[in-house]
Amino acid sequence: MPESGRTRVYLVDDHEIVRRGVRDMLTADPGLEIAGEAGTAADAITGIAAARPDVAILDVRLPDGSGIEVCREVRSRDESVRSARSRDESVRCLMLTSYADDEALLASVVAGASGYVLKGLTGGELVHAVHQVAAGDSLLDPADTRRVLDRLRDRSTDSARDERLGALSAQERTILGLIGEGLTNRAIGERLHLAEKTVKNYVSGLLGKLGMERRSQAAAYIARIRAAHDD
């Protein structure tokens, strides 16, 4: 709770009528006050930095960017100056959106948001959400957070796989693809007009770069990459 006893809230939404409605709901609570408002990402970043509210309610979709980008910028600035403060004065970000979107939820988690709520909630639920976020609680459902973080880890794994794939030469990648099709060294040689021994050398080289010992591992590896791309 801030020293004034009231939680200062900054509103960001590109629709004035929405901001007015949210403002009216929040100011009906004596424990909340409006520190400022903006309709664009650019104005929000500047305004939040100047107002230093306790909570920023951010619309996910803005005409010049997104509330997620605003959240990322605000949280990044907080991290850079936090060590100089005697207490935690971080701006808590509450994402407000009309759509349940896993991609936006994932991006919000990564950006450091404290909550992600839909515009269909009631005024009382929004006020309660603001108080919870201001108190340092997270409104991100544990199951949802776990799901999106699992997806993030999967993406990191895919990135590592892509890095290994990038270490291969063009010819090695071609041969890896043919291994994935189930071709033998002799069949690959016939397809590429190479001697079987040459193909064998290429296979040994690409297995080494991929950190593998058997061609069956390489076949499974390329199959997983193809399946991921198909998804």
Largest sheet: 5 strands, parallel
Provide the helix percentage.
55-70%
Strand content: 5-15%
* Tally of alpha and pi helices: 10
* Coarse shape: rod-shaped
Which structural class is indicated by helix and strand composition?
alpha/beta
Distance between the termini: 46 Å
Q: Would you count the extended β strands for me?
A: 7
Question: Major sheet: order of its strands?
Answer: 2-1-3-6-7
The H/E string reads EHEHEEEHEHEHHHHHH
User: Average pLDDT, to the nearest integer?
Assistant: 82
Poorly predicted parts: 83-87
What does the radius of gyration come to?
A: 26 Å
Question: What does this 3D model show about the protein?
Answer:
Helices cover 58% and strands 14% of the residues. The chain has 231 residues and is α/β, with parallel strands linked by helices. It has a 5-stranded parallel β-sheet with strand order 2-1-3-6-7, with helices on both faces. Strands 4-5 form a two-stranded antiparallel sheet. The radius of gyration is 26 Å and the shape is rod-shaped.
